[in-house]
Design brief:
Layout lengths: L15 E3 L6 E4 L4 E4 L9
Antiparallel strand pairs: 1-2, 2-3
């Protein structure tokens, strides 16, 4: 399992919970937004 985010990227609050069937999906209870975090890679392309 990957690490969960500590803060919402939109409002900065910590009231997050996993969301949806897709890996990396989270829901922020504070700003009512859903988002997906994905790893983009290491280093330059």
């Amino acid at each position: 399992m990957r690490a969960a985010p500590f803060y919402c990227p939109y409002c900065g609050e910590t009231d997050l919970e996993p969301n949806g069937d897709e890996a990396g999906g989270f829901y922020c209870n504070s700003c009512d937004r859903r988002f997906i975090l994905a790893f983009g890679g290491i280093g330059e392309e």
